[in-house]
Amino acid sequence: MKFVARALCTSLSFFMAAIPCAFSQSGDLPAPMASNNAEAARLVNQCVQLLQQGKDKEMLETAQRAVDLAPDFAPAQAALGTALSKAGNNEEGKGHLERAVKADPSLKKAWLSLAASYTALGQLPEALQAYKTFLQKFPSDSNAALARSLAASLEKQINQVQAMGGGEDYFDQATNRKPARWPASKMPLSVFIADGSSVPGFRSDFSQMVRASLEEWASAADGKLSYKYVGSPSGADIVVNFTNNPGALHTVSEAGEARYTRVGDMLKKEEVYLLTIPVGGASQLSDDAFKMLSLHEMGHALGLIGHSPYPDDIMYFSFAASNKQSLTTRDTQTIKRLYADTVKPSLAQLNADGVKELNAGHAEKSLEIFSRAHEYYPGDDIVVKNLASAYNNVGIIALHKNDFDKAITLFQQSLDLKPQDNKVSQNLGVAFMNKGIIGQQKGDNNTALANYAKAVEVFDRIKDNASVARAVKTYADLLRRTGKGKEAQSLEAKYKVSR
User: Fold this and answer.
1) Helices (H), 401-496
2) pTM of the model
3) How many Å apart are CA 401 and CA 91, to the nearest integer?
4) Same domain, 359 and 396
5) In contact, 32 and 276? CB cutoff 8 Å
6) Across all residues in the chain, what is the average pLDDT?
7) Of 56, 144, 220, 332, which is least surrounded by CB within 10 A?
8) CA Rg, the chain, in Å?
9) What's the rounded Cα separation, in Å, for the pair 58 and 202?
10) What are phi and psi of 469, to 5 degrees?
């Protein structure tokens, strides 16, 4: 099956698109107002309209005028904070939003914008607290449901990061648990970097920065990646384009985008778009900002489709969160793992696939998947539990088909993993008994006696007295039929079973 998707890196405005601005034409503006405040309020309301129209540069200029006119007017501070954050200046924007809610805690949407700003900066606990404050103050607000959803997502991400404990890599997140990479047979990858000389904001060194970014990822992958630079996009594996138009991207507020095509676990085509101007167009794009953008998008192009949950990493979803200039250890370990000779599958994905097959009634396929999971993650408790259950499930199917040898083997494999599972032990005892009964019906008394003895032992070990009694009676009866009456009496006495 062929999949076409996008890998997107976002700035704060990604969140702002789903969150109303930090001020409104009514409800947030105090009254009565001094003349300066009244004029600032008019400018703030212009900012609302400019935000809705996507005119970020004009919004920033207007918000700055409002603050210059009335620096103590909280809605003006909120407007400037939002505008700065949308322009990629999250740290300064956060400061204005903090001043806004401190001066006037009733500014509902300023709390939401502040939470989004914290999120973009990687300050997740602070973002969560801002959402909680909003919900505590305004539980019936029209944005409360959205705030609850965002807070829940943040809490999950915070717990995930804490559970990972600053792990060596972020492979599951970067691959969305379905890894895809460029196959070795494609090396060197053909890369076309478009001529951006006619694009406003483009500088000639941008192309060289893209090459440097690709080479940095190749070095991190221990030489498993190599490139050849070609003069035409036709047939190129990776095509890099430059644009000064945020509207050309999937989301207006984005600084870059990688559109990938995959077939199964192989990448087939990557088209990358890099913005040559800052989001909002407030100033020229700096070398540091473009290098960060280029490293991030080239990571997507090489197979890191998702994002890191750690703000320090190049592949964190918001590269505005810090001034990163090179790959972190986690970035390096993640690309190494993706291009290792044997790619270790995601534990979560293996478990999910195994459960999916089981629910679909494909017990054998489920067993195959859980067996693979156990090979890769032998010490994981969930893997052990799932594999033990899979052995038992397939064993039951074999038992119903009277394939007793297979059933016994599978039940024993299950018990090797989970020795205290009495239900599996009971299934094993039943398999021994049924094998014995079939053997007796066929006149193979030796097989019957041996399996009856094993069944009694299993039932006794799990203290299933009712099954012990039935098995002993069947076993003793055959002993007597074969001239072994004393053994039958001894057996009945041992287990206190009467004839």
Assistant:
1) 404-417, 422-441, 445-461, 465-481, 485-495
2) 0.50
3) 67
4) yes
5) no
6) 83
7) 144
8) 33
9) 22
10) -60, -45
